[in-house]
Amino acid sequence: MRKAIEFRNFSGGYGVSEDYRKLHDFLTICQEKNFSYARLDWMITHRPYLEEGNLCRIGIWEEGQAVVATALFDTALSDIFLIAARGYETLYEEMIGCACGHMANDGGKPLRLFINDENLGLQKAACKMGFSKTNQKEPVAAFDLRRCPLEESDLLDQTHREAGYQIVS
């Protein structure tokens, strides 16, 4: 039997905190293309770009102590990313409601949901709640070593290897 899913807001500040670690671990497991753990790392450590005062608006859904979903922004409110673990897609409408209620930009900039083209469930939930699809896209840089296996020597030149750099996964 599932435990109750509880919502709360992010309680960490700028930099590494317990909530940052929980979200980092969650994003590492989910492997969401639109908002990876690397994007979280960049977002949480980049002043002056980060709207630090709005970190408390990030939404976290937990089952027990485990994060099962989150509503995030990338440095500035208005560009919202919604991520749910597999099996928790029923949270989509609640997540969109959270974004609309707690993450709307006070500066009047319209709220935009960034939804992966492959996530039809989230697209349907967004349409149901009054959002419409646009032709705007956000390119995501990703290098999938499983699809293009290379030797470490192909990616790092001799100078970097001698300096001690290495690629790990």
**Multimeric state:** single chain
What general outline do the C-alpha atoms trace? globular
Per DSSP E runs of 2 or more residues, the count of β-strands stands at 5
Highest-level CATH class: Alpha Beta
Q: For the residues shown, what is the average pLDDT? A: 82
Straight-line N-to-C gap: 34 Å
Q: What percent of residues adopt helix (DSSP H or I)?
A: 25-40%
* Cross-sheet strand order for the largest sheet: 1-2-3-4-5
Could you say which structural class the secondary elements and strand pairing correspond to?
alpha+beta
| CATH H-level homologous superfamily name | Gcn5-related N-acetyltransferase (GNAT)
How does the major sheet shape up? 5 strands, mixed
The overall number of domains is 1
Rg, Cα atoms, Å: 18 Å
Q: Number of helix segments?
A: 6
Reported CATH architecture: 3-Layer(aba) Sandwich
Give the SSE string: EHHEEEHEHHH
**Ranges with pLDDT <50 over ≥5 residues?**
none
Strand content: 15-25%
CATH topology: Aminopeptidase
How is this structure best described in words?
The protein is of the alpha+beta class and 169 residues long. It has one domain (5-138): Gcn5-related N-acetyltransferase (GNAT) (Aminopeptidase), CATH 3.40.630.30. It contains 6 helices and 5 strands; from the N terminus they run E-H-H-E-E-E-H-E-H-H-H. It has a 5-stranded mixed sheet, sandwiched between helices.
